[in-house]
Amino acid sequence: MKKILIVDDKWNIRNSLSIGLKRIGYNVDTVNSARTALLNLAQKSYDILLTDLQMPETDGYHLANIVQQLHPNTKIILMSAYDFFEYQNRYEDIKNFKQLAKPFELMQLVNLINVS
Length: 116
Hints:
It is a single chain. The protein is of the alpha/beta class and 116 residues long. The chain has one domain (3-115): Response regulator (Rossmann fold, 3-Layer(aba) Sandwich). It has helices spanning 11-24, 34-43, 60-70, 106-115, and strands spanning 3-7, 27-31, 48-52, 75-80, 97-101. Strands 2-1-3-4-5 form a 5-stranded parallel β-sheet, sandwiched between helices. The radius of gyration is 13 Å and the shape is globular.
């Protein structure tokens, strides 16, 4: 089963996604910041990086760029409650990513994971 790293500064989102994905059978780790995500990625590889776009300190876009350079086989899913169109020009550097608008149903995420 795929290994997923969830990065979101909001505990309730990390927790609910983790519970739902683990019930389906995915291996899931969660962290609350990009900095902690990079520490995890230095020790462990993941198939999927699921990250919030808007976070304090380092945003999901910057994290995705770093992960793409260090771990090119890790697929990236950016999630946000904000309009992705506003940030579209920032995504041009990121290859092979999906986006998911909050709020979303768990099965929408599972479908993206399965095609990633």
